Protein backbone atom coordinates (compact mmCIF):
# COMPACT_ATOMS: atom_id res chain seq x y z
CA UNK A 1 0.00 0.00 0.00
CA UNK A 2 2.79 2.40 0.93
CA UNK A 3 4.61 1.71 -2.35
CA UNK A 4 1.41 2.30 -4.31
CA UNK A 5 0.80 5.67 -2.66
CA UNK A 6 4.41 6.75 -3.13
CA UNK A 7 4.26 5.74 -6.78
CA UNK A 8 1.19 7.91 -7.32
CA UNK A 9 2.83 10.80 -5.46
CA UNK A 10 5.85 10.55 -7.73
CA UNK A 11 3.61 10.50 -10.80
CA UNK A 12 1.70 13.64 -9.73
CA UNK A 13 4.84 15.69 -10.46
CA UNK A 14 3.87 15.34 -14.14
CA UNK A 15 0.17 16.15 -13.69
CA UNK A 16 -1.17 19.49 -14.98
CA UNK A 17 -1.85 21.99 -12.19
CA UNK A 18 -5.62 21.88 -12.66
CA UNK A 19 -5.82 18.19 -11.68
CA UNK A 20 -4.40 18.86 -8.21
CA UNK A 21 -5.18 22.51 -7.56
CA UNK A 22 -8.93 22.69 -8.24
CA UNK A 23 -9.91 19.52 -6.29
CA UNK A 24 -7.56 20.62 -3.49
CA UNK A 25 -9.20 24.05 -3.14
CA UNK A 26 -12.73 22.59 -3.32
CA UNK A 27 -11.94 19.94 -0.70
CA UNK A 28 -10.32 22.53 1.57
CA UNK A 29 -13.31 24.88 1.51
CA UNK A 30 -15.95 22.14 1.84
CA UNK A 31 -13.89 20.38 4.52
CA UNK A 32 -13.54 23.54 6.59
CA UNK A 33 -17.30 24.17 6.44
CA UNK A 34 -18.13 20.59 7.41
CA UNK A 35 -15.52 20.59 10.18
CA UNK A 36 -16.79 23.73 11.92
CA UNK A 37 -20.43 24.15 10.84
CA UNK A 38 -21.49 20.96 9.12
CA UNK A 39 -24.42 20.43 11.47
CA UNK A 40 -26.23 23.30 9.71
CA UNK A 41 -26.21 21.49 6.38
CA UNK A 42 -26.38 17.98 7.83
CA UNK A 43 -28.92 16.65 5.32
CA UNK A 44 -26.86 17.77 2.32
CA UNK A 45 -23.59 16.54 3.81
CA UNK A 46 -25.16 13.16 4.56
CA UNK A 47 -26.61 12.88 1.04
CA UNK A 48 -23.44 13.94 -0.78
CA UNK A 49 -21.26 11.73 1.42
CA UNK A 50 -23.50 8.71 0.84
CA UNK A 51 -23.45 9.28 -2.93
CA UNK A 52 -19.66 9.67 -2.89
CA UNK A 53 -19.29 6.43 -0.92
CA UNK A 54 -21.49 4.64 -3.45
CA UNK A 55 -19.37 5.89 -6.35
CA UNK A 56 -16.17 5.02 -4.49
CA UNK A 57 -17.23 1.51 -3.51
CA UNK A 58 -18.60 0.62 -6.93
CA UNK A 59 -15.68 -0.39 -9.18
CA UNK A 60 -16.24 1.74 -12.28
CA UNK A 61 -13.46 0.31 -14.40
CA UNK A 62 -15.69 -0.81 -17.27
CA UNK A 63 -18.47 1.17 -19.03
CA UNK A 64 -21.27 -1.26 -18.09
CA UNK A 65 -20.79 -0.49 -14.38
CA UNK A 66 -21.21 3.29 -14.65
CA UNK A 67 -25.01 3.01 -14.65
CA UNK A 68 -24.91 0.79 -11.56
CA UNK A 69 -22.71 3.28 -9.72
CA UNK A 70 -24.97 6.20 -10.66
CA UNK A 71 -28.09 4.31 -9.55
CA UNK A 72 -26.50 3.36 -6.22
CA UNK A 73 -25.39 6.98 -5.69
CA UNK A 74 -28.89 8.35 -6.29
CA UNK A 75 -30.54 5.80 -4.00
CA UNK A 76 -28.07 6.39 -1.17
CA UNK A 77 -28.30 10.16 -1.59
CA UNK A 78 -32.07 10.09 -1.11
CA UNK A 79 -31.79 7.68 1.83
CA UNK A 80 -29.14 9.72 3.64
CA UNK A 81 -30.72 13.11 2.87
CA UNK A 82 -34.03 12.22 4.54
CA UNK A 83 -32.73 9.77 7.14
CA UNK A 84 -29.57 11.65 8.05
CA UNK A 85 -29.70 10.74 11.75
CA UNK A 86 -29.51 7.04 10.99
CA UNK A 87 -26.90 7.62 8.30
CA UNK A 88 -24.56 9.56 10.60
CA UNK A 89 -24.88 6.86 13.27
CA UNK A 90 -24.00 4.19 10.68
CA UNK A 91 -21.18 6.28 9.23
CA UNK A 92 -19.65 6.93 12.66
CA UNK A 93 -19.87 3.24 13.54
CA UNK A 94 -18.33 2.18 10.22
CA UNK A 95 -15.50 4.72 10.57
CA UNK A 96 -14.59 3.55 14.08
CA UNK A 97 -14.86 -0.14 13.10
CA UNK A 98 -12.65 0.36 10.02
CA UNK A 99 -10.07 2.27 12.08
CA UNK A 100 -9.93 -0.49 14.68
CA UNK A 101 -9.50 -3.18 12.02
CA UNK A 102 -6.76 -1.25 10.20
CA UNK A 103 -4.78 -0.77 13.41
CA UNK A 104 -5.12 -4.45 14.32
CA UNK A 105 -4.02 -5.55 10.85
CA UNK A 106 -1.24 -2.98 10.51
CA UNK A 107 1.32 -5.70 9.80
CA UNK A 108 -0.50 -6.90 6.66
CA UNK A 109 1.79 -7.21 3.64
CA UNK A 110 0.84 -7.83 0.03
CA UNK A 111 2.95 -7.83 -3.11
CA UNK A 112 1.33 -5.55 -5.65
CA UNK A 113 2.26 -4.26 -9.07
CA UNK A 114 3.30 -0.59 -9.21
CA UNK A 115 2.45 1.09 -12.53
CA UNK A 116 5.45 2.31 -14.50
CA UNK A 117 6.32 5.98 -14.01
CA UNK A 118 5.39 8.16 -16.97
CA UNK A 119 8.22 10.70 -16.79
CA UNK A 120 6.73 13.29 -19.13
CA UNK A 121 4.13 16.05 -18.85
CA UNK A 122 0.62 14.59 -18.96
CA UNK A 123 -2.67 16.01 -20.16
CA UNK A 124 -5.77 16.08 -17.96
CA UNK A 125 -7.19 12.95 -19.62
CA UNK A 126 -3.89 11.10 -19.27
CA UNK A 127 -3.65 12.12 -15.62
CA UNK A 128 -7.16 10.84 -14.89
CA UNK A 129 -6.30 7.57 -16.62
CA UNK A 130 -3.25 7.24 -14.36
CA UNK A 131 -5.43 7.80 -11.28
CA UNK A 132 -7.87 5.21 -12.60
CA UNK A 133 -5.03 2.71 -13.08
CA UNK A 134 -3.75 3.25 -9.54
CA UNK A 135 -7.32 2.93 -8.24
CA UNK A 136 -7.56 -0.48 -9.87
CA UNK A 137 -4.46 -1.73 -8.04
CA UNK A 138 -5.68 -0.11 -4.84
CA UNK A 139 -8.88 -2.18 -5.13
CA UNK A 140 -6.81 -5.33 -5.61
CA UNK A 141 -4.88 -4.48 -2.46
CA UNK A 142 -8.07 -3.83 -0.46
CA UNK A 143 -9.60 -7.10 -1.68
CA UNK A 144 -6.53 -8.99 -0.49
CA UNK A 145 -6.61 -7.08 2.81
CA UNK A 146 -10.26 -8.01 3.43
CA UNK A 147 -9.62 -11.65 2.57
CA UNK A 148 -6.76 -11.75 5.09
CA UNK A 149 -8.87 -10.52 8.01
CA UNK A 150 -9.37 -12.99 10.85
CA UNK A 151 -12.28 -13.55 13.23
CA UNK A 152 -10.39 -11.53 15.83
CA UNK A 153 -10.14 -8.50 13.52
CA UNK A 154 -13.83 -8.68 12.62
CA UNK A 155 -14.95 -9.27 16.21
CA UNK A 156 -13.02 -6.31 17.62
CA UNK A 157 -13.94 -4.00 14.75
CA UNK A 158 -17.57 -5.12 14.78
CA UNK A 159 -17.82 -4.75 18.55
CA UNK A 160 -16.42 -1.21 18.43
CA UNK A 161 -18.80 -0.36 15.59
CA UNK A 162 -21.85 -1.68 17.45
CA UNK A 163 -21.00 0.36 20.55
CA UNK A 164 -20.67 3.54 18.47
CA UNK A 165 -23.88 2.72 16.58
CA UNK A 166 -25.83 2.40 19.83
CA UNK A 167 -24.37 5.65 21.15
CA UNK A 168 -25.16 7.41 17.87
CA UNK A 169 -28.72 6.10 17.84
CA UNK A 170 -29.26 7.41 21.38
CA UNK A 171 -27.42 10.73 21.04
CA UNK A 172 -28.30 11.98 17.55
CA UNK A 173 -26.65 15.37 17.86
CA UNK A 174 -23.36 13.85 19.01
CA UNK A 175 -23.34 11.42 16.08
CA UNK A 176 -24.07 14.21 13.59
CA UNK A 177 -21.40 16.48 15.09
CA UNK A 178 -18.84 13.65 15.03
CA UNK A 179 -19.74 12.65 11.48
CA UNK A 180 -19.51 16.21 10.15
CA UNK A 181 -16.23 16.84 11.99
CA UNK A 182 -14.75 13.59 10.65
CA UNK A 183 -15.81 14.36 7.09
CA UNK A 184 -14.34 17.85 7.41
CA UNK A 185 -11.05 16.59 8.84
CA UNK A 186 -10.75 13.98 6.09
CA UNK A 187 -11.56 16.55 3.42
CA UNK A 188 -9.04 19.10 4.71
CA UNK A 189 -6.33 16.44 5.08
CA UNK A 190 -6.89 15.25 1.52
CA UNK A 191 -6.87 18.87 0.34
CA UNK A 192 -3.54 19.61 2.01
CA UNK A 193 -2.00 16.48 0.48
CA UNK A 194 -3.17 17.49 -3.00
CA UNK A 195 -1.97 21.08 -2.60
CA UNK A 196 1.41 19.97 -1.27
CA UNK A 197 1.71 17.53 -4.18
CA UNK A 198 1.02 20.50 -6.45
CA UNK A 199 4.02 22.21 -4.84
CA UNK A 200 6.10 19.01 -5.20
CA UNK A 201 6.60 18.93 -1.43
CA UNK A 202 6.24 15.11 -1.04
CA UNK A 203 3.58 15.20 1.74
CA UNK A 204 3.38 11.40 2.03
CA UNK A 205 7.07 11.25 2.99
CA UNK A 206 6.39 13.68 5.84
CA UNK A 207 3.29 11.78 6.98
CA UNK A 208 4.95 8.36 6.98
CA UNK A 209 8.08 9.63 8.74
CA UNK A 210 5.98 11.23 11.53
CA UNK A 211 2.88 9.03 11.45
CA UNK A 212 2.09 9.24 15.17
CA UNK A 213 2.27 13.04 15.16
CA UNK A 214 -0.05 13.40 12.17
CA UNK A 215 -2.49 10.81 13.52
CA UNK A 216 -2.63 12.73 16.81
CA UNK A 217 -3.30 15.99 14.96
CA UNK A 218 -6.01 14.32 12.88
CA UNK A 219 -7.70 12.87 15.98
CA UNK A 220 -7.50 16.26 17.72
CA UNK A 221 -9.12 17.94 14.71
CA UNK A 222 -12.06 15.52 14.84
CA UNK A 223 -12.39 15.93 18.62
CA UNK A 224 -12.33 19.74 18.38
CA UNK A 225 -14.83 19.84 15.51
CA UNK A 226 -17.17 17.46 17.33
CA UNK A 227 -17.04 19.39 20.59
CA UNK A 228 -17.38 22.79 18.89
CA UNK A 229 -20.45 21.78 16.89
CA UNK A 230 -22.03 19.86 19.75
CA UNK A 231 -21.77 22.82 22.14
CA UNK A 232 -22.30 25.82 19.88
CA UNK A 233 -24.95 24.69 17.42
CA UNK A 234 -28.56 24.08 18.32
CA UNK A 235 -30.19 20.98 16.91
CA UNK A 236 -33.74 19.73 17.00
CA UNK A 237 -35.23 17.05 14.75
CA UNK A 238 -37.93 18.46 12.49
CA UNK A 239 -40.68 16.40 14.14
CA UNK A 240 -39.75 17.78 17.56
CA UNK A 241 -39.75 21.36 16.22
CA UNK A 242 -43.21 20.88 14.72
CA UNK A 243 -44.48 19.37 17.99
CA UNK A 244 -43.12 22.32 20.01
CA UNK A 245 -44.79 24.77 17.63
CA UNK A 246 -48.11 22.94 17.98
CA UNK A 247 -47.86 23.02 21.78
CA UNK A 248 -47.10 26.75 21.71
CA UNK A 249 -50.12 27.30 19.46
CA UNK A 250 -52.40 25.37 21.81
CA UNK A 251 -51.20 27.41 24.78
CA UNK A 252 -52.02 30.65 22.98
Explain what this protein looks like in three dimensions.
With 252 residues, this protein is an all-alpha fold. The chain has one domain (19-110, 123-246). 79% of the residues lie in helices and 0% in strands. The protein is built from 11 helices and no strands. Helix 5 (84-104) packs across helix 8. The longest helix has 27 residues, at 172-198.
Label the structural class. Answer: mainly alpha
Helix/strand order, N-terminal first? HHHHHHHHHHH
The major sheet is characterized as: none
The 3D shape can be described as globular
Short recap of the structure:
It is built from 11 helices and no strands.
SSE order and pairing:
Elements: H1 2-11, H2 17-37, H3 42-57, H4 66-82, H5 84-104, H6 124-147, H7 151-170, H8 172-198, H9 203-209, H10 211-232, H11 238-251
Helix pairs in contact: 2-8, 3-4, 4-5, 5-7, 5-8, 7-8, 8-10
Tags for this entry?
252 residues; 79% helix; 0% strand; single chain; mainly alpha
Amino acid sequence: MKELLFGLQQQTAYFPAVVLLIPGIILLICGLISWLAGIWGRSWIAGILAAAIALWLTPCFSPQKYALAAMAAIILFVFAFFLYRGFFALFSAALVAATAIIFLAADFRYEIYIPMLKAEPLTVDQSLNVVKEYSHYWWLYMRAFCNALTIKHLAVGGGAGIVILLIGARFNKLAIAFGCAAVGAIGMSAAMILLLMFKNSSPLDMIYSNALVYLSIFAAMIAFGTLEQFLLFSYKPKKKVEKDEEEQGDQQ
